[in-house]
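[scheduler] slot 2 assigned
[scheduler] job type: sequence-to-structure, two independent chains
[scheduler] chain ordering preserved from manifest
[runner] begin chain α
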Amino acid sequence: MDDAPDDERCVQFSNYILSTYAAPDATFPPTLWANHDLDEVKTTNGCESFHRHFPDLFRSPHPNVFERMANLKDIQAYIATKLNTIRNGRGAPVLRRQARLKRDAMATIKRRYAANDISRKQFVTKMSWKNLPAKL
């Protein structure tokens, strides 16, 4: 890349990221961890959302096994109920205006990239700007 730093450590790190996470034949390819659904705008995928809220379920840093199992059963019941609601055509998530605008802008960027109207670098740059935190 023309604008990459001229540092061997940066090259090694970018090669590691590419071979581990980004390439189609990577150890953990994007199909495994990346979410292409634009309805989830607060996180990159469901796993990230789950792991963000999981620690909130416990009252102590080292909960006993029974408390942990009870919480996991509660999560399973909640997810099963949510999935059944969505499958039955009810309970579609309601997005605020700002979230809808962001989702629509990201969909437009994605369509432009798929149609080869913008380069990969432009795609990443535009998507990154759309995902900046609201307050710094």
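[runner] end chain α
[runner] begin chain β
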Amino acid sequence: MNLKIVETIRKQGFTAREVANKLNMDPNNLSRYDAKKRKITLETAYEISKIIGCKVDDLINEE
């Protein structure tokens, strides 16, 4: 499963830093999820989608 978290965050008008601050996490973790260097939990994906106003499915790159 390929993720496009940082891209979706930007498309929704947010920065990775803003979202990471709301999640109390290091902003680098968001790009680590995309690069598969860190595993994301469903709960974290849901929280990100809630913050930026999208569906969890929007965080997944289906290409």
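[runner] end chain β
[qc] chain β: Helices lie at 5-11, 16-23, 28-34, 42-52.
[scheduler] slot 2 released
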